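Q: Sequence in, structure out?
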Amino acid sequence: MRQEDRSSATQAILIAAGRRAFLENGYAGTSTPSLAKATGVSRGALYHHYEDKKALFRAVVEEIQTEVFNAIEERAVAAKDPIEGLKLGSRAFLEEASKAEFVRIVMMEGPSVLGFNEWRAIERKTGVQSLVEGLAYAVEQGAIDVPSVEIMAALLSGALNEGVMTLFAGDNDQATLDSVYQNICRLIDGLVRQP
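A: Exactly. Output:
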């Protein structure tokens, strides 16, 4: 096995262990010695790949955010028009982001561990960027009319994040998911260009 492949494999092992540990114990309750022990990776190797626990946490947040972004993109691309794409992408976000791992690691601990600006930069590269692209495409196709794609993406992102927290704070059941989704669809329908 090439050194590059071994390095990637070790990083994947550490990120997987980090995801489990940060979900179960939180950031503060997770130690690098426990991560090294759980993975069979030496502490030296851990620090070779990630300078500290915060760097590993950042990698975990980025991986989770990327997975959600990919789910959004996959769903939105299958849409028959830009409005449906925005709606299907929103549904994918609500389904994926309302999972305990996303809520605890990304939404609850992410801003405090990484700092708001760094956390926000990661979010902008994934979820918000997906909205920017979807909205820009809808504008380009003449389906919607918004004064600012960037600002509208930020506002819709806020609504979607609140929808996720509503789901997580409640029973996270299908009926609540459907209700949150229907309300998000109303917001998106409000953007449709009027004849």
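The mean pLDDT is 92.
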